[in-house]
Design brief:
Blueprint: H1 6-15, H2 22-42, H3 46-56, E1 64-65, E2 71-72, H4 74-86, H5 102-115, H6 120-141, H7 156-168, H8 172-185, H9 199-219, H10 235-239, H11 246-249, H12 273-286, H13 290-296, E3 297-304, H14 306-309, H15 320-323, H16 327-337, E4 350-351, E5 354-355, H17 358-363, E6 367-371, H18 373-378, E7 385-391, E8 396-401, H19 414-425, H20 431-442, H21 450-464
Parallel strand pairs: 3-6
Antiparallel strand pairs: 1-2, 3-7, 4-5, 7-8
Helix pairs in contact: 1-8, 2-4, 2-6, 2-19, 2-20, 3-4, 4-5, 4-9, 5-6, 5-7, 5-9, 5-21, 6-7, 7-8, 7-9, 8-9, 12-16, 19-20, 20-21
Pfam family, one: MmgE_PrpD_C
Family: Belongs to the PrpD family.
Domain MmgE/PrpD N-terminal: 10-245
Length: 467
């Protein structure tokens, strides 16, 4: 097809979707499982608490659950839960679009499903279609969009609107209006990364909230730009140097984007994960201890791709948040400690002068990251990294990969995702929350009314949270 009409073609598809295969719905369930774990665990973190307090102050409403913190309007709950889902940097990632889709789309869908008293099957279908819209638009503008814009805040606004609109039963014209209104609200700039501001977590929350608002407005007859994507002053032209509109419509209904979703096993930026995998593989293969690494390693050379390096170039982080975007730090942690989890980002490891944990501070200057033109050319189809460890005896050991663990090409099992869920939720709440939550996700298509199921889970969360 020609580029003209991209917005209309997408609206027609999501408003009148074909049969969604069971395997695709299962992939959506895995995304919900992973996203809910990050939501519940993140709901107790300071940025989440700030937004929860704000949302409660916007007015009394009883539409949907703010997990761990009461109830609010659907838009307010979507905002609060979207922020919470992104805080720990463990929510999902789709490599082709560089979008963390769970944080904006699942809270929007869940909030509207509660308000509209929709069942789990309708919710899961909405999640599939929301991912479909967001990830396809993200692929169309990636990678040039990523230079200044955070696609989890920008592009995912479209996905949240589609998910919300699906649960509201929007027709084709209304869905096109919802896309138009979503696109004119899409925002999220990378400037926060320079200071480690909380803005990154706000992006998916606002995308979720704006998506709900866009669908609500469309249902009421509020019109949106019908060429919001492809128009001369539309989203493509405004937010990308180069775009490929065909990525939005190619193989619609045949290739489902939620099935390409990736899952994060380390609590840091996804652009570091392939390098972490390589560092962990070297440590395990050679039986290294922290003491051996400190005493025998002269230099660690890490090759990565340019668009990722722009985000993870911090060399000596002063805060846990900066450390999550420091390729040097996370590779050091992997080599010394054999793990890059929440413990590795504890407050007591950092100070005004940088990393204060003694062993990490000693290794960090020896880690030399660099951008590889060869690896940059592979992105975003691959997220490659190469790690070379040069020992003081002259030996050089190498490891690397093109896809981090958790990606479709290097997958993790549902059992591993459930183990991750428990590890996130149980320390912050208890088994009294984690097991009912897991049961809800496993059998979500049989849930007749998510308003009831979500409210019950939220009551458990409020009674069991560990501050």
């Amino acid at each position: 097809m020609t580029h003209a009409g991209t917005s209309a073609v997408l609206a027609a598809f999501v408003a009148n979707p074909p049969f969604i295969p069971g395997s695709v719905l299962e992939d959506a369930r895995r995304s919900v499982l992973d996203g809910l774990g990050s939501l519940l665990a993140g709901s107790l973190e300071p940025p989440a608490r700030i937004v929860q307090d704000l949302v409660r102050g916007l007015g009394q409403a009883d539409d949907a659950s703010i997990f761990g913190a009461g109830r609010a309007s659907a838009a307010g709950a979507a905002l609060a839960n979207g922020v919470a889902t992104h805080i720990l940097e463990l929510d999902d990632i789709h490599k082709g679009s560089t979008i963390h889709a769970a944080a904006p789309i699942i809270p929007a869908a869940l909030a509207v499903a509660e308000r509209e008293h929709q069942g789990g099957a309708a919710f899961l279908r909405a999640v599939v279609l929301g991912y479909e819209a967001a990830l396809r638009i993200g692929e169309a503008v990636n990678p040039s969009h990523y230079r200044h814009w955070h696609p989890t805040g920008t592009v995912a606004t479209f996905g949240a609107a589609v998910a919300a609109g699906t649960l509201m039963g929007l027709n084709e014209r209304q869905m096109l209006d919802a896309l138009g209104t979503a696109g004119t609200q899409a925002a999220g700039l990378w400037e926060f990364n320079a200071s480690g501001a909380m803005s990154k977590t706000l992006h998916p929350g606002k995308a979720a909230m704006n998506g709900v608002m866009a669908a609500d407005l469309a249902r009421r007859g509020f019109t949106g730009a019908p060429t919001i994507l492809e128009g001369p002053r539309g989203f493509f032209a405004a937010t990308s140097a180069v775009h490929d509109a065909e990525r939005v419509t190619a193989d619609l209904g045949q290739l489902w984007k939620v099935s390409e979703n990736g899952y994060k096993l380390y609590s840091c930026c996804g652009h570091t994960h392939t390098a972490i995998d390589a560092a962990l593989a070297l440590r395990q293969a050679h039986g290294w201890t922290a003491e051996w690494v400190l005493n025998h390693v002269r230099e660690v050379r890490v090759a990565t791709y340019g668009p990722g390096w722009d985000i993870v170039s911090e060399r000596n982080p002063q805060t846990p948040y900066q450390a999550k975007f420091s390729l040097s730090y996370v590779v050091s942690a992997a080599l010394l400690e054999g793990a890059v989890g929440l413990t590795q980002f504890s407050e007591n490891r950092f100070g005004p002068s940088g990393v204060t944990q003694e062993m990490l501070a000693r290794l960090l200057p020896r880690v030399q990251p660099a951008v590889s033109a060869e690896l940059s050319a592979m992105y975003p189809a691959a997220w490659p990294a190469r790690v070379e460890v040069e020992c003081i005896d002259g030996q050089v050991l190498r490891a690397g990969g093109d896809f981090p663990r958790g990606n479709q090409e290097n997958p993790v099992s549902t059992a591993e995702l459930e183990a991750k869920f428990r590890a996130l939720v149980e320390p912050r709440f208890s088994e009294a929350v984690s097991e009912p939550a897991l049961a809800l996700v496993r059998h979500i298509e049989a849930v007749p009314d998510l308003a009831v199921a979500s409210a019950e889970l939220n009551i458990l969360c409020q009674g069991a949270r560990h501050e």
